[in-house]
């Protein structure tokens, strides 16, 4: 068994007083303190980060972490745009499959608010193809096109999209680490200014700073010592054309479909078995596509289903999504997001989610996407 | 057994007519054509690149590769400064350890010459700590300090350093893919202008464009079909403080010592068993330190030993190093370097090295370093 035994996250938000390095250090010290592990028990570290190079000329972060911990262990930085954290988790899981009796840290971090809005917008479009960048397609622009296509094809309106951030903001009011701890209404979403039609400010995840870490282990002694653990039943990565123009369909992210199909097969579960999911809601349309692509909702039904609010905490629905607040309201410090998703699923499955604790969830899923769907990671945990 | 069965590299050099994407495509198409594998036989791809984000706002290259190949397989980008390629190889090797019967591509690429000299100098210093960057320590500056310390401590002169590039340039005259296919003399090295005292232009590896790829497999059918293969006996990664000021010693790269110690233990070999090595000679001092840190030469003897030229092709010495020409003369397209090293060892061990073929080598080693020693990868291959 490979288990998640501990989770630590910094607050997410505009953390003006903390540097990239401060965030990494806080997450490392936090996860070690919380797990009561000595740093010498750690065999390797996987680190997810997207923008350190572009935003502050900071690469080779593995050696940065080695300096912070004063260790010589292997440390690996992975990057897959906004899926950097999820990919780091996946590779850590792979690593343990061939290294019995080991304990590792998987950490993700991003420092975004020190860059100007222009710089961060350009930096984020590094996740898109060179052609898309050249024609001026920003990240919201790409998801705006996906949203336009979806609303047109399945006859929905912007009001259907707005249900997603309303739910996720409500969840964030129950998460003290979230970027936006306030509820919003459908009317507020609809009244907020457009970013890329039909997507508005309140359909869009924010520019956040933060870091998050989990302990993964297959060492029976470490598992036994842990206060609570969840086991990893599957983790799969799939890719797709980086450019939207080379995709076969625009009402689905095929990378999500492929990764979730493989993950369910590996875990020997059906989508209906999942009670908790953290989904990649960088924009409201993204959560609707995710619900359909993973198989929770029928293709094309997502607009209607979203407005039923059956995935909201307290609704009594069979599947509650983005209890952390999602990328939209918990915040989206890119490299940290995929780790926070795993951490939230771990908290829920081990009854440590406090005010937002969903009752007796046995299986949880995390879904992390890079760019406009060029990479997707699906991980399934169980207790 | 996990084997290297095929190697393809583009020419290394100032490739003005080729984009980053062109180089990746050439290496992918080249490795598939040469291996006679169908792309559908590939289960995963590991990609090493350092500077795509900073230099041309190009991240999420995994999805770029997915688009080129029209595949949905997992593709992982890794970055560890100049060790990005070596780390990609290491993670690919790890991946196969837990995935039997699979075949993967490990590829590295870098496009450096499109950036201005100022931009590329700043970009490369992203491998150093923020403090080192702030005080103006460039990459040659860091290695210049290591060289000063070494020459002073062990009483050598710049002439001793100069032997390294003279040997490596000679080797590059025998490698049609090399950046500099011309021989140089000790006098020419000493007469070349200083970059960072005591290092001169001809002590320093160049700014190169290029891409390289290898096929790794543990599928017996693919191994059987291969024209020639070498098996991977060990691959180890170690890290160290990113800043020189936090290192315990300056006459050694401890990451190299730790990684090579673990690799020899895992391969059950002693350094004396190795007949072929590709070493990370980003600057002449780096090859001398590597020879000592790996255990080929006694600590402090490297200056003298270098001037004996016993590691030069044709010398009859028991260990020949950097037959490709090394980073210095074959060129140093950063992400591609670690893959080219593996490829050169593979060519030598399988008698495919043409004019520079070393006789009957059974064991070979590749040594790839990130930054000023914050990361080191040691891989051992055998036939």
Topology:
The structure is a homodimer of 383-residue chains.
Chain A: E1 3-9, H1 20-35, E2 44-48, H2 52-56, H3 61-69, E3 75-79, H4 84-97, E4 103-110, H5 117-124, H6 130-134, H7 139-154, H8 158-172, H9 186-191, E5 194-196, E6 199-200, E7 210-217, H10 220-225, E8 230-239, H11 254-267, E9 276-278, H12 284-294, H13 302-306, E10 320-321, H14 326-330, H15 334-349, E11 363-370, E12 375-382
Parallel strand pairs in A: 2-3, 2-4, 9-10, 9-11
Antiparallel strand pairs in A: 1-7, 1-8, 4-7, 5-6, 8-12, 11-12
Helix pairs in contact in A: 1-3, 4-15, 8-12
Architecture overview:
Two copies of one chain form a homodimer. The first copy, chain A, is α/β, with parallel strands linked by helices and 383 residues long. Chain A has helices spanning 20-35, 52-56, 61-69, 84-97, 117-124, 130-134, 139-154, 158-172, 186-191, 220-225, 254-267, 284-294, 302-306, 326-330, 334-349; strands at 3-9, 44-48, 75-79, 103-110, 194-196, 199-200, 210-217, 230-239, 276-278, 320-321, 363-370, 375-382. Chain A has a ten-stranded mixed beta sheet with strand order 3-2-4-7-1-8-12-11-9-10, with helices on both faces. A two-stranded antiparallel ribbon of chain A has the order 5-6. In chain A, a hairpin with a 4-residue loop joins strand 11 and strand 12 (375-382). In chain A, helix 4 packs across helix 15 (334-349) and helix 8 (158-172) packs across helix 12. The longest helix of chain A is centred in the N-terminal third of the chain and has 16 residues, at 20-35. The radius of gyration of chain A is 19 Å and the shape is globular. Chains A and B meet through helix 2, helix 3, strand 3, helix 4 and strand 8 of A and helix 2, helix 3, strand 3, helix 4 and strand 8 of B. Strand 3 (75-79) of chain A pairs antiparallel with strand 3 (75-79) of chain B.
């Amino acid at each position: 068994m490979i288990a998640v035994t501990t989770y630590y996250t910094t607050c997410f938000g505009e953390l003006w007083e903390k540097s990239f390095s401060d965030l990494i250090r806080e997450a490392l010290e936090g996860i070690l303190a919380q797990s009561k592990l000595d740093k010498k028990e750690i065999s390797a570290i996987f680190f997810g980060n997207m923008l350190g190079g572009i935003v502050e000329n900071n690469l080779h972060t593995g050696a940065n972490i080695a300096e912070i911990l004063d260790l010589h262990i292997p440390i690996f930085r992975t990057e897959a745009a906004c899926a950097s954290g999820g990919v780091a988790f996946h590779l850590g899981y792979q690593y343990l499959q061939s290294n019995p009796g080991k304990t590792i840290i998987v950490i993700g971090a991003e420092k975004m608010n020190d860059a100007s809005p222009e710089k961060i917008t350009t930096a984020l479009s590094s996740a898109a193809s060179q052609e898309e960048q050249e024609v001026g397609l920003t990240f919201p622009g790409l998801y705006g096109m996906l949203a336009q296509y979806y609303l047109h094809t399945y006859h929905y309106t912007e009001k259907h999209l707005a249900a997603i951030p309303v739910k996720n903001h409500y969840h964030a009011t129950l998460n003290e680490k979230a970027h936006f701890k306030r509820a919003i209404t459908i009317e507020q979403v609809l009244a907020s200014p457009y970013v890329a039609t039909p997507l508005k400010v309140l359909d869009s995840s924010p520019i956040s700073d933060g870091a998050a870490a989990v302990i993964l282990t297959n060492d029976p002694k470490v598992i036994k010592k842990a206060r609570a653990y969840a086991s990893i039943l599957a983790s799969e990565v799939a890719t797709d054309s980086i450019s939207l123009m080379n995709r076969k369909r625009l009402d689905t992210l095929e990378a999500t479909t492929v990764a979730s199909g493989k993950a369910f097969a590996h875990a020997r579960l059906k989508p209906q078995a999942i009670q908790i999911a953290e989904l990649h809601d960088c924009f409201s349309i993204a959560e609707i596509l995710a619900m359909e692509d993973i198989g929770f909702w029928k293709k094309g039904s997502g607009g209607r289903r979203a407005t039923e609010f059956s995935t909201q905490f307290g609704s009594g629905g069979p599947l509650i999504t983005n209890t952390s607040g999602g990328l939209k309201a918990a915040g989206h410090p890119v490299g940290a997001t995929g780790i926070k998703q795993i951490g939230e699923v771990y908290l829920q499955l081990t009854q440590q989610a406090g005010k937002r604790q969903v009752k007796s969830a046995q299986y949880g899923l995390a879904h992390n996407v890079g760019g406009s769907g060029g990479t997707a990671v699906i991980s399934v945990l169980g207790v």
